[in-house]
Amino acid sequence: MREPATPAPRDILDLAGLRLVPRRYYGRWIAAALILLIMGYIVKAFAEGQIEWTIVGQFMTAPAILAGLVNTVIMTACAMALGITLGVVFAVMVMSPNPVLKTVATFYIWLFRGTPLLLQLLIWFNLALVFPKMGIPGVFEARTVDIMTPFFATLLGLGMNQGAYTAEVVRAGILSVDVGQTEAAKSIGMTRLTTLRRIVLPQAMRFIIPPVGNEFIAMVKITSVASVIQFSEILRNAQTIYYANARVIELLLVAAAWYLMVVTVLQIGQFFLERHYAKGSGHSRPKAQQPEA
Amino acid sequence: MNNTLAIQNAAQSEVKPLVRVRRVSKYFGDFRALNEVSLDIPAGSVTCIVGPSGSGKSTLLRCLNQLEKINAGAIAIDGELLGFRLQGDALHELTDAEIARQRLNTGMVFQRFNLFGHLTALENIIEGPVTVLRQPRKQAIEIGEALLARVGLSAKRNSYPIELSGGQQQRVAIARALAMKPKLMLFDEPTSALDPELVGEVLTVMRELAGSGMTMIVVTHEMGFAREVGNEVIFMDHGEIIERGLPRAVLDNPTNARARDFVNAVIK
User: Fold this and answer.
1) What pLDDT, in 10s, does the model give residues A166-203?
2) Which of A181, A182, A187 to mutate to test the interface with B (most CBs of B within 10 A)?
3) Nearest chain A Cα distance for residue B112, angstroms
4) Closest chain B residue to A286 measured between Cα atoms?
């Protein structure tokens, strides 16, 4: 008996003329819809809640708020500059073969990481209780209360605390650079410090910048802690205003908006900095290896 | 070949050897990497060090440019004692900066190239001349470009190491070492990390360098190179030199049993 003639089965590799149906991501659509719904609800709640939005807009550029903003930005920049400088110095000291430097740096990191930041700020601010006068006897002397202004006490408190943490970040960065780089630098006659400065640190930067960027952003907000020692940063100034006019939420929203703006600018800066230090790492140039010309 | 001639000339004219190693020992913990090694290297010669891994070849090389500190013995390069200054009847340990200056006498080429990853090929070469020798940047670039041309990589001037093949990286590394105008070039298994087809280009550069009269000490498994370019072959095992002589003698007809086993294993 002959089998009935059926059409020849299609070859699995013969794709000509077929319609392509892209994969569908139903989960994503549902999730996005849900999130939009929740967001809409929150926005609606805030819009209908007892918030005077005109007051928020009005105080965004109030002189006291802007002065606080400037203080916050200046303090963040100065404290991080001090922190990063101390961090690099102490990281190099901790890794030094010199036992004196190593011990000093280890002690510093232990001391400043081991006590609360708030407590350190209070100690700096109240230093006059211990040392009524400061300076080098006979050369320069001043009353401690005149030196330890809220600004200077905050700078020392935040900067020295930051230095202890950054030292560990920098140390991790240095450790991430291959020991072969150090040996090659030595072999062309570089001293230890030149090797660090010219060869190791530039390559460690790639590993140092993301966590330091993180800490930079944290610092913008930690400056608000200094309100306890009367440093007039943005949050303290916002509070001073709402103690007077009772517009609590409005002024807190003003401060929040400014913090977000400063942090956004910092994030953009970090992006460009990371791109700069990625050179030669293979993450900056998508170009594939070229065969020899 | 003029290999035999070079050695005879060196012996006859009684020139002071460029490198003198006397009873040098090196320990890593309890492990004895070098055991009272003594060695003279005449200027202008190519010495190839062969032997099984862990025999102390690389350690000896690293002691010659003080990447490792020796535990006993003494090394002199170009009449200068390494690591110490002789003053009266006392030996004074040198400072970090003085050791760095002594390293200028020796150029080193590493198995894993160790090019500076954040610098381009040309920047790798001029880094030492500019920051260590304080050469004017313009002059350093001119010399660097000439060296790149010498190793056949002028076109790769602005490439980062990651964009270069292993063979190209090693050629840049040789140029980087040469830029410091060393009296002695040390090669630590320069072709061991390369794909087989890239070994030739590096050996070609080394052959040219040997032809130019550079004093070279090469730790290698390339028996062909040792035979052809080497003035002398040194066989090391367990931290000791167990055989040395003309390449033909050591590689074709070793008297020592361990050397014979090794040569047979490598060649066959």
Assistant:
1) 999 999 999 999 999 999 999 999 999 999 999 999 99
2) A187
3) 8
4) B163
If you average pLDDT over each of A55-59, A144-148, A283-287, B14-18, which comes out highest? A55-59
Give Dmax (Cα) for chain B. Answer: 55
Q: What is the pLDDT of residue B236?
A: 95
Task: Tell me the ipTM for this assembly.
Answer: 0.90
Q: What is the pLDDT of residue B268?
A: 53
Is B108 at the interface with chain A, CB within 8 A?
yes
Residue B194 CA to residue B170 CA, distance in Å, equals 9
Whether the pLDDT of residue B3 is over 70: the answer is: no
**What is the average pLDDT across A124-148?**
84
pLDDT at A2: 60
Query: Under DSSP, is residue B28 helix (H, G, I), strand (E, B) or coil?
Result: strand
Contact A180 B161 (CB under 8 A): no
- Cα–Cα distance measured from residue B240 to residue B25, given in angstroms and rounded to the nearest whole number: 10
Name which of A194, A287, A293 is nearest B163 (Cβ-Cβ): A287
CB A238 within 8 A of CB A244: no
The alpha-carbon gap from B143 to the nearest alpha carbon of chain A, in Å, equals: 16
What is residue A291's predicted lDDT score, i.e. its pLDDT?
44
Write the CATH number for B259. 3.40.50.300
Nearest chain B residue to A177 by CA distance is B117
A-B Cβ pairs (cutoff 8 Å, strict): 91
Going by C-beta distance under 8 Å and a sequence separation of 6 or more, which residues neighbour residue B258? B237, B242
Q: What is the pLDDT of residues B196-211, one digit of tens each?
A: 999 999 999 999 999 9
> Domains of chain A (ranges plus CATH)?
61-277 (1.10.3720.10)
Chain A nearest-CA distance from B31, in A, is 22
- Residues B180, A188: C-beta atoms closer than 8 Å: yes
Q: Which structural domain range is residue B100 located in?
A: 3-267
Burial-class residue A282 by CB neighbours within 10 Å (0-12, 13-18, 19+). Answer: middle
Q: Which of B226, B213, B183 is nearest to B48 (CA)?
A: B226
The confidence score (pLDDT) of residue A285 equals 47
Question: Taking CB atoms and an 8 Å cutoff, what residues of chain B touch A194?
Answer: 131-132
Give the pLDDT of residue B53. Answer: 87
- Is residue A158 within 8 A of residue A117, CB to CB? The reply is yes
For residue A186, list chain B residues with Cβ-Cβ distance below 8 A: 65, 67, 100, 103
Q: Give the integer Cα–Cα distance in Å for A252 and A259.
A: 11
Name the more confident of B209 and A140: B209
Query: Among all residues of chain A, which has the CA nearest to that of B109?
Result: A184
Q: How far is residue A57's CA from residue A79's CA, in Å, rounded to a whole number?
A: 30
Residue of B116, B119, B124 to mutate for A, most A C-beta atoms under 10 A: B116
Helix (H) or strand (E) holding B173: helix B166-178
**Contacts of A75 by beta carbon, 8 Å cutoff, 6+ apart:** A151, A154, A155, A158, A223, A226, A231, A233
**Structural domain total, chain B:** 1
